[in-house]
Amino acid sequence: MTTSFSFFRAAAAVLITCGLLLGCDQQSASPSAISTTAPSADSRYAHKLSDKNATGETLALYNNLAGLRGKHMLFGHEDSLAYGVNWEGDLDRSDVRDVTGSNPAVYGWELGGLELGHEQNLDGVNFKQMQEWIKTGYSRGGVITISWHMYSPVSGANSWDKTPTVHELIPGGAKHEVFKTYLDTFVAFNEGLTATDAAGRGHYIPIIFRPWHEHNGDWFWWGKGHVSEQDYISLWQFTVKYLRDEKGLRNLIYAYSPDRSRIDLAKFESDYFYGYPGDEYVDVIGLDNYWDVGHTSNTASADEQKAGFVSSLKGIVKIAQVRNKIAALTETGNNRLTIPNFWTERILNPILVGEEAQQITYMMVWRNANTAREKSEQFFAPYPGQQTEEDFKTFFAHPFVLFESELPKLYE
Ligand code: BMA
């Protein structure tokens, strides 16, 4: 893919020359119009990305999210357009929109299976259609984030397999070359994530890329107990260096997201930084927190959980502030929404109590699995008739919370 990127660069340079000197028509939406122009010298932006050559749209998104801090938090949903609890097959539908009238502001997508050449991801989402949904969401002003439950290149099993794998993937490892081909599948996928702006200029869609998540838990092969801390760090750093420096992807914002259930709030920072790859490799100080919002294994009272929730958010906000980065609740939710008034009582009100937790830029809940197809109930956003529907509408209507229909321009 290096070849095609160099080609795009060269073609973009030709186009610019063409436009400036020859007055050619620049309205062409052909792939050769894709810009990889680096705005690193752009002094409008206070918040820098780990990629000093990130595209203008990518840097704008990061800074615009930073600019909303304390005033608004974006609401996101995984696989929102792909299926819902009681429907599938519609190309432009979302349980979130069925309830509120708006799509979520943040769209989460998942790559697991792409690395094996599958046509569909591990949850049955067709990758070509996923690219279309990403383009649709972006064209409506939404934010795209991507996670990757990668299969193990060592055992061939899924991401929940515990076979030690990471040591073989990093430079010097027996599966390093195979691992690069896995990453290449994302490079190829990303090639299809382009858009054309009003001036006819092609560009890559900014992506908040969130690999190797919840690594402080022991449920994934890249998780604690199946890999040394140093090897995990090497895995992350190699991933960034390969995509950014070797393959030249300029549209990625890197999100780091340990899991709250494995963090002791009394020593939040030291626990949070287990496996932290370094400020030059991370842009979003994220946290996956299901624990404090009613996780079935959490025996603490609701009030204790709310206090823990706020404390964990303050923790990431503080870490982000010191580093001039943004903080986000990268995953959260209450599976099957069994808690009445979950949205206001367990999410919104605790966040609104003090100024610090309000500094998080977005929150995202996980997917609404199609009950009939998956033959089990798993959902994190309400659907029409679900018991938290009215409470979710109250959450939606609150000025602090932004859904897609309420978004300011985030890419300029
Ligand atoms: C998990 C569950 C699984 C799913 C996986 C990847 O948390 O939702 O059903 O396969 O995420 O999306």
How would you sum up this structure in a few lines?
With 412 residues, this protein is an alpha/beta fold.
What would you note in describing this structure?
The protein has 412 residues and is α/β, with parallel strands linked by helices. The protein has a single domain (5-30, 55-406), classed as TIM Barrel. It is built from twelve helices and 14 strands. The chain has helices at residues 2-22, 56-67, 95-100, 127-139, 166-169, 176-191, 229-246, 268-272, 302-323, 342-353, 371-374, 389-397; strands at residues 34-35, 73-78, 83-84, 87-88, 106-110, 143-147, 194-196, 202-204, 207-210, 252-256, 284-289, 326-332, 362-365, 401-402. Strands 2-5-6-9-10-11-12-13 form an eight-stranded parallel β-barrel. The longest helix is centred in the last third of the chain and has 22 residues, at 302-323. The two termini are 28 Å apart. 47% of the residues are buried. The model is unreliable at 1-32 (pLDDT under 50). Bound molecules: beta-D-mannopyranose (BMA). Beta-D-mannopyranose binds at residues 110, 112, 122-123, 149, 366-367, 378.
